[in-house]
Amino acid sequence: MVSAVKSLFKRKKSEKKKITVKSALLYLFNCYLCFVLAGLFVVCMKDKLALFPLKNTDWKPYLPEMAAKFKVQTKELFIPGPHQAKLAALLITKPGSKYIYLVSHGNGGNLGYRVALAAFLVATGQSVFLYDYEGYGESSGEAKLDNLTPDGLAAYDYLVGAGGYKPEQIILYGESIGTGVTSGIMSERKARAVILQSGFTSLVQAGKDRLWQLRLFPDWMMPAPHLDNLSAVKRHHPPLLLIHGSLDQILPVQYSRTMYAEASEPKRYYEIVGAEHNNIGMTDTPGFCKELSAFLTSFDADALTPLTPPTPQIEDKKKRPSRPRKMS
């Protein structure tokens, strides 16, 4: 009896170890199918995974203090955007400025989280225009990757239209995912200079570096927009400044190093030692502002000479009868 049980046990054990070619292929196919489904999930959820808009406005009480400290004029606006949207914006005018920075911000928060950055830019003696993408802050519409560049183009068109600025007075400034937006604007509009801060070579590459499931798909299969900074800087472009923090853990500094190495002239590179992704300008404020000023004078020796700025014809936010629609 005991020997019969042992014999049965050994037979089952040997049968368990037996793996056929068919079963192995089936197992590999199931694994691949799981990987593909995981990748498709990531692709379908791209907007939710990449964009983190906030609607808060608790930054507004600080504007009068900023205006007094930096001797600037601030004005909240709504500007026309694509898809019949209204984009919230903040115009910070520095009397005597020659240029205006058009800031396309990163994927989190809203324009209020870039008021500190605006202060650094104003310190170079220039004006600043911040705007929110659809679904961010008080902008109407929905936050989508496909909307980012069209929103940036709408902000640019507003500046050269109702804003009264000329293309040669506009400095495009992109931060994080906003570098892709800035490269998109640069490819379709004229500007005096371009600054890409804490950017990536492309959104596709950044996504693959963070989510291994996406590596299963070739680049051509990835959904638009690709926000391809590397291709943009390889082509002819205005004077270019690349800025990155050496300790950036979100978008590694190697992205900007690669772009600088492969970008066409004219170009400059400024790596902030000890800076991370979200504290650019705070670890070495004097050095940051000095580099911005040096960049301005590199293409315009009189960039810091006070001039009479244009008088924008702007739509006052306070006169608008109703608040924008909240993001659904």
Task: Explain what you see.
There is one protein chain. The chain is of the alpha/beta class. It has one domain (48-319): Alpha/Beta hydrolase fold, catalytic domain (Rossmann fold, 3-Layer(aba) Sandwich), CATH 3.40.50.1820. It contains eleven helices and ten strands. The strands form two sheets. It has an eight-stranded mixed beta sheet, with helices on both faces. It has a two-stranded parallel sheet with strand order 1-5. Helix 7 (178-188) links the parallel strand 7 and strand 8. The termini are far apart. 40% of the residues are buried.
CA-atom Rg in angstroms = 25 Å
Q: What's the domain count?
A: 1
The count of DSSP E runs of length 2 or more, i.e. the number of strands, is 10
- C-alpha termini separation: 72 Å
- What is the CATH C level class, in words? Alpha Beta
Encode the helix/strand succession as letters. Answer: HHHEHEEEEHEHEHEHHEHEH
Helix coverage percent of residues?
25-40%
Unreliable stretches (pLDDT < 50, length at least 5) are 314-328
CATH superfamily, called what?
Answer: Alpha/Beta hydrolase fold, catalytic domain
Mean pLDDT, nearest integer?
A: 86
**Biggest sheet layout:** 8 strands, mixed
CATH architecture label: 3-Layer(aba) Sandwich
